[in-house]
Amino acid sequence: MSIFTASATAPVNIATLKYWGKRDKTLNLPTNSSISVTLDQNDLRTLTSAATSPDFKSDNLWLNGKEEGIKGERTIACLRDLKKLRKELEDQNPSLPKLSEWGLHIVSENNFPTAAGLASSAAGFAALVSAIAKLYELPQSMSEISKIARKGSGSACRSLFGGYVAWEMGDKEDGSDSKAVEVAPVDHWPSMKAAILVVSDDKKDTPSTTGMQSTVATSDLFQYRIKEVVPKRFEDMKKAIQDRDFEVFGDLTMKDSNSFHAVCLDSVPPIFYLNDTSKKIIKLIHKLNEQEGKIVAAYTFDAGPNAVVYYEEQNENKVLGLIHKYFSKVPGWEKVTEKKSQFIDSNIEFDTDAYKGVSRIILTGIGPGPQSTDQSLVNDKGLPK
Ligand code: DP6
């Protein structure tokens, strides 16, 4: 049987200027522009293989070894857009095989446990559109492709680039100018590191989509955030990245995380994503920066209690020295076993039981965008291996 396959990997991104609020729910158009750092795929990535054949009667999807089928409206929207672009190519060049008319089999896997509690939708949709764009040999730019990923999950559009990425909100009603662009590539400022403290929590967090809808509808503070705060911060943060100015970058990152959690609290009913452990980590990082007399580490929190702490490599021994002192009992330090002897001991006083609220630490850094790969998750029948 004739079968075409392609595989790609895509990274996780963690926003330093948060996307929170939609002006159009179907097209996933945001109420503000946002900025993120793309993380290293060696630690966190989604691998997706896409296969198509005239024998596949319908589209199907397998996630982390389980057949899920194509259920969500958002996945359907992404596949529709990708097939439309492929169809345009086929119409221009009738000798091309009619891939746009055949079923698609999509098989996807994360290299990190879903139980780690990390939102994987960004990497997931970015890998899905990257693999299919490759399968269909689409000539569009990454920014164009990012508009398709955006329909899957807003933050996914930013995972189409490596390094430092902006999602420009745009102002067109059809979303044709709401896309991701590169602010700076990895090698512009490669010393950026991230320590993710996975915070344990039994409660189910409010999903981002419902949370942001509620904030848009009920929070007064939110109007101030999108009109007065974010537009200026967007420009200031891009400049801080261009200047490799960690002090400004870190200051804005922490302020923006707090601004986002403030509008969550201002929603009716209030949405709480931070828990006591998250708040302890916030205090710890402020104590460190205070002691250093400058910002050497910056925290940020998404729609959940996990902390992501950004810092520069030259301050690693200080930052990880402190975190290790109080969180050495959680798994995840194996990666830096050899570096531990250089960690600087800290005299900062902190709750010695705080580690009990953290299930693991992921030590990572900045990384590139989606990668094409020969590693395939489908067998020669187009089914999961
Ligand atoms: C707090 O991209 O998951 O992580 O577009 O509804 O899928 P949907 O939302 P999603 O929201 C991410 C929200 C955030 C901030 C951010 O990543 O910018």
Automatic annotation (TrEMBL):
Pathway(s) this gene product operates in, as recorded in its UniProt entry: Isoprenoid biosynthesis; isopentenyl diphosphate biosynthesis via mevalonate pathway; isopentenyl diphosphate from (R)-mevalonate: step 3/3
Record-annotated Diphosphomevalonate decarboxylase-like N-terminal domain positions: 10-179
Cited InterPro entries: GHMP_kinase_C_sf, Mev_decarb, Mev_diP_decarb, MVD-like_N, Mvd1_C, Ribosomal_Su5_D2-typ_SF, Ribsml_uS5_D2-typ_fold_subgr
Sequence ranges assigned to domain Mvd1 C-terminal in this UniProt record: 195-372
Keyword Ion transport: no
Keywords: ATP-binding, Lipid biosynthesis, Lipid metabolism, Lyase, Nucleotide-binding, Steroid biosynthesis, Steroid metabolism, Sterol biosynthesis, Sterol metabolism
Pfam families named in the record: MDD_C, MVD-like_N
SUPFAM superfamilies per the UniProt record, alphabetical: GHMP Kinase, C-terminal domain, Ribosomal protein S5 domain 2-like
GO MF annotation list: ATP binding; diphosphomevalonate decarboxylase activity
Catalytic reaction annotation: (R)-5-diphosphomevalonate + ATP = isopentenyl diphosphate + ADP + phosphate + CO2
Keyword Lipid biosynthesis (UniProt): yes
EC number: 4.1.1.33
One GO biological process term: isopentenyl diphosphate biosynthetic process, mevalonate pathway
GO cellular component, one term: cytosol
Family: Belongs to the diphosphomevalonate decarboxylase family.
Identification of the protein by name: Diphosphomevalonate decarboxylase
Taxonomic placement: Eukaryota, Fungi, Dikarya, Ascomycota, Saccharomycotina
